[in-house]
Amino acid sequence: MKAFLKFDFNVVTKKLLEEKLDGFGVKYNIVGFGEIEFLEEVKPEKMEEITALLNSYGIEIIENQKSILVQKIKDLITEIVFQENNLNVKSSVYLAEKLNHSYGYLSNLFSEVTYTSIENYIILQKIELAKHLIVNEKLSLTEIAYKLNYSSVAHLSTQFKNTTGITPSAFQRIIEQRRKIANEK
Amino acid sequence: MNKEYIHIILADDDEDDRLFFTDAFKELKISTKVNTFNDGVELMNYLNDPEAVLPNVLFLDLNMPKKNGIECLHEIKSNERFNDIAIAIYSTSSSEEDIEETFVSGANIYIKKPSDFTSLKKILSDVVSINWQYHTSGLNKDNFLLRL
After folding, report:
1. Whether B114 contacts chain A with CB within 8 A
2. Per DSSP, which regions of chain B are E strands?
3. Shortest distance, CA B41 to any CA of chain A (angstroms)
4. Separation CA A157–CA A175 (nearest Å)
5. B136 touches chain A (CB under 8 A)
6. Are A145 and A101 part of one and the same domain?
7. Domain count of chain A?
């Protein structure tokens, strides 16, 4: 028997951080997604232990300023992509305002660190969400296009094909077949 | 912890193709470390060594002597130790059926072998860059399908 799961990464991460940090007995405050403030001085040895434990869960403490800013851009993009209502403002303007840097600066920095542009990253994230909705929520392309603020189904399909090289229906067929095979094992 | 290079393995029996690939990787912006193998048996011997450093991306030629790309793909997919490796199949075939079958068998990327160096560089750069996003942004690898 198999069960298919849906995750809320915000909740999962927050709970995990709370459990693990409580285990170390340090005072902290989870400021937002991806930011923790320690309310006391943490000894380097203890910090090493915390870092190692978090690493084993795929959580990394970012040290360099550029990486921190890039992570903030990524978090905001996730927020933009996942929210149901249209922002009514261009993502470039939104990022620049939220992060207090010019878009030109953010965009250069992002490309330098991630090897892709902010625009491509947003498209990639949208298509990833579309994939998730096709596979896990069984939504139709019309519903997905509406949810992700595409002007039409054709626009979504074209962007899907341009990004992945395959059509949304081929993608759905492949994943279904994979699951069928996995279930037979 | 953040590995600043991508580890790549390439299995191809054609020496020219291997050279072509390694040269193309050298010219990319992302730093890569490339190991090559001449056939499927050599490749699987390496991977099955418990001490082996596993690659981020594995490029498999479909037609190889001794053990072909599809056989390697099935072996790799049946072993959980290899779950994190993104598998790129490349072949001269562009039959829709072949392509879908390799995806269903667990391949993440399907590349139709290009004939010139510039296109190869562009393709490899796309593969490595998208794989990097999966690697660093916590995207769901089960949904990672890419055809170039």
Report:
1. no
2. 6-11, 32-37, 57-61, 86-91, 109-112, 146-147
3. 26
4. 17
5. yes
6. no
7. 3
Q: What percent of chain A stands above pLDDT 70?
A: 97
First to last CA, chain A: 11
B67-121 pLDDT, tens per residue?
Answer: 889 999 999 999 999 999 999 998 888 788 889 999 999 999 999 988 888 999 8
AA letter at B65? P
**Homologous superfamily in CATH for domain B6-147:** Response regulator (3.40.50.2300)
pLDDT in tens, A100-115: 999 999 999 999 888 8
The domain spanning residue A160 has which CATH number? 1.10.10.60
| Structure token pair of residue B67 | 């053990």
Does A165 contact B143 at a Cβ distance shorter than 8 Å? Answer: no
Structural tokens at position A161 = 């094909």
Distance, in Å, from the CA atom of A132 to the CA atom of B142, rounded to the nearest integer, reads 10
pLDDT at B57: 94
Q: How far is A174 from chain B (nearest CA, A)?
A: 5
Residues ≥6 apart with Cβ < 8 Å to A14: A30
Residue A4, domain member (yes or no): no
Asked whether the ipTM of the predicted complex exceeds the cut of 0.90, the reply is no
pLDDT in tens, A124-178: 999 999 999 999 888 899 999 998 989 999 999 999 999 999 999 999 999 999 9
Q: Residue A71: give the domain boundaries.
A: 63-115
Q: Please report the pLDDT score of residue B1 as a whole number.
A: 34
Which chain A residues have a beta carbon less than 8 Å from that of B74? Answer: none
- Exposed, middle or buried: residue B120 (CB in 10 Å: 0-12, 13-18, 19+)? buried
Is A1 within the bounds of a domain?
no
Contact between B73 and B51 under an 8 Å Cβ cutoff? The reply is no
